[in-house]
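Appendix C: a fully annotated inverse folding record. The material below is reproduced so that readers can follow the format used throughout the book. The structure is listed first as tokens, followed by the designed sequence.
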């Protein structure tokens, strides 16, 4: 284990100083991925279709307190949005809709937390890797030129060694970028799904309110 760590440190050291920000990016990316993973996993304990159905049935029967009780027992993004509308259920449909829209402005950013930063890491990491490779190649060719002037010849191993070390940052940057981008797309899909579910539930609640005010 210690030998593996030492090889990893040596691998990063040979990539040059630009390996440091790439490693830092990888730590940030991994932290966000783990945090978002457990955040969305926590929603699995909520049976959204049944919860929304129970709330709408209670609303249709005029049992507002029971609907609010379901929201309070199952507090997460969709019930928090619906609860804002239910609290104002006896007001006009415009007020109900505005209340749910305001609640969504508070709840949706929770779903999207740090995803913009994760996207930035996915886009910047390969650029840093490319920059590190270019810097390494410049140093390598400069070294080759110096040896050619002093010794009159260049060993092929000098060229190969310098180039593979220069390419280390590109490999590291692409690795961070691929993982970050895949995670970003996965979590973006989860966010879009959550937003769609909340919009559908809010629309059904608004339609019930509309029927009530038409009676």
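Designed amino acids, in order:
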């Amino acid at each position: 284990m210690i030998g593996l760590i030492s090889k990893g440190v040596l691998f990063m050291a040979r990539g040059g100083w630009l390996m440091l920000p790439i490693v830092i990016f990888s730590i940030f990316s991994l932290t966000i991925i783990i945090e978002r993973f457990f955040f969305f996993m926590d929603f699995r304990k909520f049976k959204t279709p049944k919860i929304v159905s129970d709330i709408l049935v209670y609303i249709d029967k005029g049992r507002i307190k029971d609907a609010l009780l379901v929201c309070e027992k199952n507090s997460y993004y969709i019930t928090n949005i619906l609860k804002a509308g239910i609290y104002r259920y006896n007001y006009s449909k415009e007020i109900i809709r505005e209340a749910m829209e305001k609640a969504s402005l508070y709840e949706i950013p929770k779903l999207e937390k740090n995803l913009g930063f994760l996207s930035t890491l996915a886009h910047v990491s390969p650029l840093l890797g490319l920059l590190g490779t270019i810097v390494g190649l410049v140093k390598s060719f400069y070294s080759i030129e110096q040896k050619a002037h002093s010794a009159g010849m260049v060993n092929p191993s000098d060229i190969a060694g310098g180039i593979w070390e220069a390419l280390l940052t590109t490999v590291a940057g692409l690795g961070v970028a691929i993982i970050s981008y895949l995670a970003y797309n996965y979590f973006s899909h989860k966010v879009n799904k959550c937003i769609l579910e909340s919009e559908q539930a809010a629309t059904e609640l608004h339609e019930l309110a509309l029927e009530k005010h038409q009676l």
